[in-house]
Amino acid sequence: MISTNRIFNCYKDELKYQIYSKTLLLIFIISISLAAINLYGLVSKAEGAYDVYVRTYNEFKDAGIDVEAMLKSPLNRDIKQTGSDRLTKVDNPVRFQFEEAGIASQLLKGPNIITNTLEWLDFVFFPIIFTLLGIHFVSYDYKYKTYKLKVIKAKWNKLFAGKLFALFTCTFFIFISTLIASYIIGLYFHSQVVNRIPLEQFSSLPQIDNNKLIIQLVFSLFICIFFALIGFLMGILFKSFILPTIIFLVFNLILPVLGKYDIRNMIAIISHEIFEFKGRFILFMPAYIPLYQSITLLVAIAILIIAASFLYLSRQGKYYN
């Protein structure tokens, strides 16, 4: 009981610091701003797709072609994707632009807001945000020399557990609050789409099937926790904020994917199974490995990161050296 109470006290102290330091508020503002940029872009995407459809319709009509017959005719697509570039060849331009406008008009409707927010944040911004959060959770004790005060209250392993649980809590809070705020913003932007585009024209089109939302949420939360753990370990190893931040940014933003077992490639394998990327962000096509291998390896890496963090600190005999 005493051990549990000490962990809980460490946990509360970590949360209080993050709240008082305005770290959570800053990250929340950044996350919401990034999400809002994407949601506003989806409004522009819907308007642009509708304008292209209208122009295509009028061009073929002015050329004396029966566009109504084209709208009722089937559409054949030949899609080729190289990296993030997707090339689509079609045999019915009018029907194609009609369907594209219909899809774009649905991207801000209901649960699609959440899916498009996750697609936008999961693969570029969330990894950076939560890696930096993980680094910060460890590095501020080195910066402000507060570890000496903390070891007086509890042993290093209790502090380690409290800090780790606090990191998970903050990650979950930022993730959920970002999605809630994004959903509210998305509903407002959807009202703008309704006012600007006659959506009844597209009532004959099937609705976007969003039956994987729960899986998308679980996987996205895993991504956030996974990169928070990476940052946590990097903070322990480097005992600073700047150097591990630079190393991660170089790896994540500059270096290309380093093979099929690169964590970015394994994340992409899973992502293409549960996301369709119909919005503004299209994820690169990964080098193939079986889905179960990607899932197993990522979970194993997350466990190894926790174990490595624990073992590194345990060899020092106390919390931080």
UniProtKB/TrEMBL annotation:
<keyword id="KW-1133">Transmembrane helix</keyword>
<protein>
    <recommendedName>
        <fullName>ABC-2 family transporter protein</fullName>
    </recommendedName>
</protein>
<keyword id="KW-0812">Transmembrane</keyword>
<feature type="transmembrane region" description="Helical">
    <location>
        <begin position="123"/>
        <end position="143"/>
    </location>
</feature>
<feature type="transmembrane region" description="Helical">
    <location>
        <begin position="164"/>
        <end position="189"/>
    </location>
</feature>
<keyword id="KW-0472">Membrane</keyword>
<feature type="transmembrane region" description="Helical">
    <location>
        <begin position="291"/>
        <end position="313"/>
    </location>
</feature>
<feature type="transmembrane region" description="Helical">
    <location>
        <begin position="241"/>
        <end position="259"/>
    </location>
</feature>
<feature type="transmembrane region" description="Helical">
    <location>
        <begin position="24"/>
        <end position="43"/>
    </location>
</feature>
<feature type="transmembrane region" description="Helical">
    <location>
        <begin position="213"/>
        <end position="234"/>
    </location>
</feature>
